[in-house]
Design goal:
Layout lengths: L1 H18 L15 E4 L27 H6 L1 H6 L4 E4 L3 E3 L9 E7 L6 H13 L3 E6 L9 H5 L16 H6 L13 H18 L3 E4 L7 H14 L4 E4 L6 H5 L8 E2 L2 H12 L5 H9 L10 E2 L16 H14 L3 E5 L24 H15 L2 H4 L1 E5 L5 E8 L2 E8 L5 E6 L9 E3 L7 E4 L2 E6 L3 E7 L1
Parallel strand pairs: 1-2, 1-10, 2-5, 5-6, 6-7, 7-8, 9-10
Antiparallel strand pairs: 3-4, 11-12, 12-13, 13-18, 14-17, 15-18, 16-17
Helix pairs in contact: 7-8, 10-11, 12-13
Length: 465
Amino acid sequence: MRRRLTVAVFMISVLLLILSPLASAVEPIGPTDLIYFIMTDRFNDAAPNEYYANKKDASGYHGGDLQGIIEKLDYINSLGFTAIWITPVVDNQPGGYHGYWAIDFYKVEEHLGNLDDLKRLVEEAHLRGMKVILDVVINHTGSLHPFVYDKPDWFHAKRLITDWNDQRQVEDGWLAGLPDFDQSNPQVMEYLIDMALWWIDQTGVDGFRLDTVKHVQKEYLTKFAYAIKARYPDFYLVGEVFDSRAGFIEGYSMTGIDGFLDFPMYYGISDTLAKDKGPEALERAVISGSLYSRRNLMGTFIDNHDVPRFVNRLDEPVRRLEQALAVAMTYTGIPVVYYGTEIALPGGNDPDNRRDMVFEENDVTETLRRLTKIRKQNAELVYGGIDLIGLGAYGFAYQRTYEGSSTVLLLNLGDEAREFSFVLPYASAFSSFEDLYDPSVKGTISNGSVTITTAPKSFYILKLK
C-alpha cells in the first residue's frame, strides 16, 4: 500500500511539473537572442472588449491586447526574433495605456486581457521556441495607487527632481510627479520582491526589463536581483539606466542585473546616422562599450518608446534606417527592435512615437529579415571581439572576429559613391570576402588591405575568407 501511495505521489508530481508554466521553458535568454519590443496597447487589437478605447486620443487606450500579440507571434518569429519584451501588464490608473502608472501590481490591466491571457502568451511563445520579457517597475506607482494614501511611509517625501546631477535627488525624487517607493523600508522591498517572484511563478516568463533603474539605490537593486536569482538562477534581468555615459551604466553591473540597454550606442547611432554628425559619435560609442563587463548581454537599440522614432528626422529614412539596423545586427550585445521599425513607422516625441502598428510589409521588413538571418548564421557577430577601422569623414567600419571567423561591417555615410581602402586590424590569411547581404558586391584583399567601391548611404557586411 505504501509503495502504491509513493508511486501515486510521484506520478502526480510529474504531472504537475508537466502542466506547470515552466514546463515548456526554453533556453535562458543570452547573446544569441534577438528581442522585439512591443507596446501592447498599440500593437494589435484582437479581442475587443467593453473597456473604453479611442484611437484618436494619442494619450489614451487604443485597444491593443495580449491576444493580439499571441496572434502575431508567427509574424514576429518570421522576422527572425527569438524573444519579445512587452510593456508592463499590471493594472493601471486611467490613462495608463503604457503600463507605467500601476494601481495594482497583482492584477493584469483589463484593457489588455487577464492573467490567463498572459499565461497563454508565454505558453504559445515557448511552443515556438520564443521567450517573453515583462517590463517591471520597482521605482514608483501611479498617483492613484491605494498605497499612496494607505501606506504613506512606503514612499519618499514628495519632491520633484530638479537637479539631475544630484544622484540622491534622482533616487528619492518623484519622477514625473509619480510616488517614489522608499526601498529602505523593509516592507517595501519584501512587497516588491514577492510581487516579482509571483509573476514568474504564475506565468513562467523568461526575463524582466527593469524600468527606471538609476532612480533606485544600488543596495536595493542588489537585494532585488539576488532574490530573483536565488530562485531562478538563469532568469534574465535587463535594466534601463537612461544615461549617455557607459561608465555610469557599468556601475550598476555590481547589482547582479545581467545587462542594460545601451544608451551610449543609441546616441552614437542617432548622432551619426539620423543627425549626420559624422562617424565620430559612433566610434566613441564603440570605444566606450569596452567599459562593459558583460558587453554581449547589453541591449543594442536604435529607438524606443521614450525617444523619437529613428526615421522621424530623415529626408531619406529607408537608407539610413537600413544602415542603423545593419549596425544593430552586427554589433556586440543583444539587438532590441521597437515594434514598427520593420516598416519604418514614423513618430516624434512621446506619445507620437507610440503610434498604432500597421501590418503592411515593405522593403525595410525584408531587409530586417535578411539581417537577423545573417546574425544567426555568423557566430562572430554574437560572440566576437570588435575592432574599429578608420575610414575618414565619410565612412564607418569595424571588424568582428571569433575563433578564426571574421566579418567587417562598413558604412558609406556620404551622398556619393566612394572607394574605401583600409588595413584589417586582424588580417590573418584572408585573401577575399563575400558580402553576406549582397553577394554581387566586388572588391579585393591584398596584403591585409581591403579595397571596395561603395554606393551612397549604403552598408556592407563582408565575410572574410
